[in-house]
Amino acid sequence: MKTKILMSAAALALGTTTASFAEDSSDPIVIPIHNWSSQIVMSHVVGQILEEMGSNVEFVTTDSQAVYESVRLGDVTMELEVWEGAFGASFRAALEKGGLHDAGDHNAVTREDWWYPMWTKDACPGLPSWEALNDCAHLFATAETGDKGLFLDGPVDWLKHGKERAEALGINYVVKNAGSAAALWAHIGAAEADRTPVLVFNWTPNFAEAVWPGEFVEFPAWEDGCDSDPAVGPNPDALYDCGNPASGYLKKAAWDGMPDKWPDAYEVLTKISFTNPQIAEMAKLVDIDWMEPEEAAAEWLENNEAVWKGWLPEGSS
Ligand code: TMO
């Protein structure tokens, strides 16, 4: 019941004089859903706004790298969270092939990298420098990793090249991919009571920063070409010998056919801009408050009317 009531939040906010997207095609606008909470909630936030404006919206669960090819071909209409660290390479490759374009930045600064909860530093005071990692490897060792440390990386489709990085920088770690984002939080949670040192993949904006104060490991700074030219970065013979961008972008991407086919929805897409706190809040509604993503989106819309109503075309509300 609660969901039903919340679902109408956007409708109530728009009032009774709602202008619809009369110019837009009635074909479904396809919004992709991936495997981390802010992206799922944000996609439903935008989907619910478009539905209230009369659009036909379809959600599809897709791989977070392959989606750029799908947007380029028009099978998927947009991507709402293009994170520079994880998806910059796939986004650039699709841009070069053509069919997809940059639909603007969110007003957010992002970082995705090796991370630890602050208690870890008590045991390994040389952190956050990556150069402390080898001396501390034994602190992160598990039955599975022997005398090497364990770094729990994100799910494989986020493609962080963790194994390549460990090799390129000569650090004594086993890099294991988590099966899901939830496995990352479980790994941190399990270490918390005994303050066991742990190294996991994490990112910002995210709910985690409000729960576990922590820091990113400072690897050699990202330089363009670190993932394509071995000469870039401290190891002259290897790719991936630097960290992900420490002040990365968060973009929206759209299929080139979208502006003609759904001009009003496209106008909304280009105006959409979420901030770090807004994105962290979207993740929190699911990862801490345990709401269903659709319900979390409806709640977010209800609490942030002043934010999103300004993105609607003139005369809509
Ligand atoms: C793709 N992610 C934001 C989870 O790093």
How many domains make up the 3D coordinates?
Answer: 2
- This entry's quaternary arrangement is single chain
Q: Identify the overall geometry.
A: globular
Helix fraction?
A: 25-40%
Task: Give your account of this protein's structure.
There is one protein chain. By secondary structure, the chain is α/β, with parallel strands linked by helices. It folds into two domains: 2-109 and 248-311, 3-Layer(aba) Sandwich (D-Maltodextrin-Binding Protein, domain 2); 111-216, D-Maltodextrin-Binding Protein, domain 2 (3-Layer(aba) Sandwich), CATH 3.40.190. 37% of the residues lie in helices and 17% in strands. The chain has 14 helices and ten strands. It has helices spanning 2-7, 9-14, 37-52, 67-72, 84-97, 119-123, 162-168, 181-192, 208-211, 258-261, 263-271, 276-287, 293-303, 305-308, and strands spanning 29-33, 57-61, 78-83, 100-105, 111-117, 149-153, 173-177, 200-204, 214-216, 250-255. The strands form four sheets. A three-stranded antiparallel sheet has the order 3-10-4, with helices on both faces. The protein has a three-stranded antiparallel sheet with strand order 8-5-9. Strands 1-2 form a two-stranded parallel ribbon. Strand 1 (29-33), helix 3 and strand 2 form a beta-alpha-beta unit. Helix 3 packs across helix 12, helix 3 (37-52) packs across helix 13 and helix 12 crosses helix 13 (293-303). The longest helix is centred in the first third of the chain and has 16 residues, at 37-52. The structure holds trimethylamine oxide. Trimethylamine oxide is lined by residues 36, 83, 86, 112, 154, 158, 203.
